[in-house]
Amino acid sequence: MAARLKVTQIKSSNGGKQNQRDSLRTLGLKRIGDIVVKEDNKSVRGLVMTVAHLVKVEEID
Length: 61
Hints:
Elements: E1 4-9, H1 18-27, E2 35-39, H2 42-50, E3 55-60
Antiparallel strand pairs: 1-2, 1-3
Helix pairs in contact: 1-2
């Protein structure tokens, strides 16, 4: 596993389910183009999997 994950929101959460909008907010993403760097752990991976169709994920060493 990488040490950190760079998560970029590439699509809007409009029309999505409430749990997907909540996952984006928990990750710290508010609008298209927002980028956050998070520690790589199971909880963050779970949030990313919930919104995988809305975000782009890159591993950072």
